[in-house]
């Protein structure tokens, strides 16, 4: 009798049913569920947390979110040689009551709403664009971040060092460009890419 490897293991080792992997179709089978993955991905379990993560078999990069499409054959971050590895930015942060830490060097307790914070930030942006004030002046006087001491300068940073929404905008900007308001857990920001 000729049988597949999977059938052999199921016949000889019934306990293998819970961890059998059908690599031809990217399926992971467990005793009580079947998970279909796009081509090029495999499921792994973190030794430290016990949580499930997904490994790109081509690039060996992992992610926590279940992939929705086939695994890229090359690392997209490394593939684009024109993409900057790090950027330098300044920012003005306006915190609100819903911010991660609603206090700053300027105010012990911040009670303004997110909408009020956005209005304040839009006013700062308009003053900069209309050349009524410089970015540095407004950052040093009004930013709720300790970087106000450096006119809002955050220095150079790489991907993964800032909150994702902030990072995504910063890395998409050209040097000298001023962003629209950006929301993060810290509050709302405007960003000036400086290098």
From TrEMBL:
Gene3D superfamilies: 2.20.70.10, 3.10.50.40. Signal peptide: none annotated. This is Peptidyl-prolyl cis-trans isomerase. SUPFAM superfamilies: FKBP-like, WW domain. SMART domains: WW. Residues 59-85 are annotated as: Disordered. Pfam families: Rotamase, WW. One of its GO terms (biological process) is regulation of primary metabolic process. It is an enzyme of class 5 (isomerase). GO terms for molecular function: peptidyl-prolyl cis-trans isomerase activity. Its EC number is 5.2.1.8. It catalyses: [protein]-peptidylproline (omega=180) = [protein]-peptidylproline (omega=0). GO terms for cellular component: cytosol; nucleus. Residues 84-195 form the PpiC domain. PANTHER family: PEPTIDYL-PROLYL CIS-TRANS ISOMERASE, PEPTIDYL-PROLYL CIS-TRANS ISOMERASE-RELATED. Residues 114-141 form a coiled coil. Keywords: Coiled coil, Isomerase, Rotamase. Residues 35-69 form the WW domain.
